[in-house]
Structures are given as C-alpha cells and as structure tokens.
Request: fold
Amino acid sequence: MRIYQDKDKTRDIQCNYCYTMGHNKRFCATMKAHWEANPQVHVDYDHDTLTGIDKTMFPQSYQSHWGDNSAKIQFRAHWRYMKNRFAEKPKTTKSRAKAKCGFCGSTAHNRRNCNKMKNFVYILNETNRAYRSQFYDRFIEGMGIGAGALVQTKTWEGEEIGIMVDFPTDKIMFTNLKRSWSDFYTAAKGKILVNGETFAISIANDFMYDPDYYNSNHGVWTPMHSPYGRIVSVISPAPNRPSKEWFLGQEPCFQWVVKKRDQRALMSELSIHIKEFYPHDNLKAKLGAKCYDLFYT
Reply:
C-alpha cells in the first residue's frame, strides 16, 4: 500500500513565517523573538509601533525582492496565531478526557488490547488470501504469468516476443484494485524485456475483475499494459512458478496499517473489496454488528 511504502519518506519543511527551510512556524525562533521584542502589541495590534522586524528575517533569495514592510506584513498575518501561542493565558483546571481506543473508539481499552483491531487484521489477511488465490488460479497457474514467461507483446513498433524478467509476487494484494491516487493503492508492476529494452507493465489493477474488459478484443490481458506496450498472450509459461501454498503464505503490512488508521477510515476505503473477496460467512461477527450494519445495510 502507498501509505506503507511511503512511511519512511521525508520531505523538505519550510517555515510559513520566515520562509527558512528546515522548520515550520511552530518551531520558528524568529517568530518568537519578534513577539517577545514587541510587548506593546501583545493585546492590540499596532502596525506602526513594530520594532526589530525587517527583511533580514527572510533567506537571502527573498531579500532581493521583498522589503522591510514585507516582514511587518508577515507579522500582521501571524499576529493572532502568535497571540494564541505565546500570550499568557489564565490558569484553568481542565478535566482530563477519558482515554479511548484509537481504532474502535471504545473507552474500555486501547489499541493494544482491542479485539476488534485483531479481528480486522484477520479480515484483511483472509480477504487478501482469497484475492491472491483467485489471482493465482487465473493468471499464474491458468495463464502461466511469472518471471521467465515468454509473452507476445504489442508495442509502438508492432507485435514482438518478450520475456518477463520480473514479477512482483509480494505486491499482489486486493488493494491493487484501489484507484492509483488512494493511500491504500498497491502498485504491482512486472518488467518485460523486448529487443534488449525493458519496460514496466501493470500486473494487477482495478480493471482485472471488470467484465466489460473481459469482453474487449484482448479480454483479460487488456489491463496488463503500460505507455510502452502491453501483453497480448503468453507463448510459453513461466518455468519456475511458485507453489500456491507459498504464494498464499505471504502476508503484507496490515498489522502496521491498523495502527495508523481507525476502523471507520479503513472500512470507508476497503469495505467494497472486503465484501467481494472475504471468503467466510462470519464477517458480521468479526466486524461487529454496528460496523457491519453501517457499511453493508
């Protein structure tokens, strides 16, 4: 899933106040210094009395275009934020909210002891096994797709014979069927070598189980495409296809995902595919009647 694959990615942070890279306005030392240097505006804003605020607060590249008044405009734009952040507030006694489970919302336990979360991981794994089982029967065993398979391809230069040099067994998940912009989408791309050139091709996506695509000229192969070419047929099946037992034994990142999203958010994204592929008749018992009725009745 994209949400899992991107978990270690970092991005550059730029402060919205001083425009310096490396921090945000919550940790901006310049903002705090400006506030403390101008106690006369802590209650009411007065643009004309601001002191110590000039264009040197910005990086050099900004200073060539912006003047001192730009700095004061930044202060004015963030004055209410600074007042809420830095001004002294009267002391009040707040009652602490009762802790609740971040997954199901119960106040009787937390995520660590949440049976609904454990049940949901089971549901996701069983749904995924059922999807992978269908994929294996249809494409790996039934059609011979896999690393080493000889395939007829159609590229811009016409029909060519290629060899599949990479097949992503670990990326075959029911979340292949999510739209590509979703946080829960899992891309599954193989690689095909044709005339010395390698191009990537989608192995599984949301068209795989669409009957309208099966009725097209290329049938089940229609979704296996890329901008560079697509599969037309398998000439010779993969010589070393994995056993189904091994293929179904691979488990993805669901234990991690349920710690980052609650039950309602996950069901909003995945309920359709769970309903389609979950192989048992105990879905209502595993989800709980309230959650099941919310999404399926």
In short: The mean pLDDT is 88. The first helix runs from residue 2 to 5. The first strand starts at residue 150 and ends at 155. Strands lie at 150-155, 158-166, 188-194, 197-204, 225-226, 229-236.
